[in-house]
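Letters spell out the chain; the tokens describe the backbone. To illustrate:

===
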Amino acid sequence: MSIRPTEYASKGLLGVGTPQANPTVEAEMLALRPAGVGLVSARLVCLDDDPRRRLLSYINDLEQTLERYDSLRLDAFGFACTGSTYLYGHREERDLVARLQDRFGYPVVTAAAAIESRLNALGAETIAMIAPYPEWLLNPGVEYWTARGFRVSAVGHARLPSADLHQIYELGSHQALEVLQSLELDGVDAVLFSGTGMPSLRAIQAAQADTGLPAVSSNLCLAASLFDIIGLDGTAATDVAAWTARVDTL
């Protein structure tokens, strides 16, 4: 028997998987979601001290994560960890998603797949990428988007004070913007803030106002894809005016 609390999810119930110490995903999803959309999160958990193994564990163990929803019936699930995909690979992720969808009976979308969908919808071919990753993750990220057919003409690195990836969660939008302001954007079609742990919504607001370019992020694209899946207009998530007031209450 499957159950869904329709009283609090009249337009759809979404699940989202977020890295265990990430405080950003739920906040930004709640700011972006339309009224009537329910959101239930699951923590992606790995106790390994090595951040690379941790990221790979999040995606390798995704089936077990979805099992924790038990009989709760979701309309769609979003995997909110872009870095995992950069290490795991596109083909492997595509096969995993197909297998999970077949077993659990609802759509599964990853942040990376959602970004690609949004960039394609924008007609973007050349992108600037701002990310808080160390080199061992930043480089695979650039390689991932290049392999997906995009030209990454500018890369901005929001540097962390140490190799501890948990410090990503202490960053603010202003640091992402400072990195963006240091980049050469001639020929760029869109700006990508990559990483679900780095706050991005205020950075998107400012980036679009300052550069005139469309700006997207891992969380924004994931929200838009999930809304599209349940039959709502995903562009509502990419319309800054639609969620500015909600962001200001966070």
Summary: The mean pLDDT is 90.
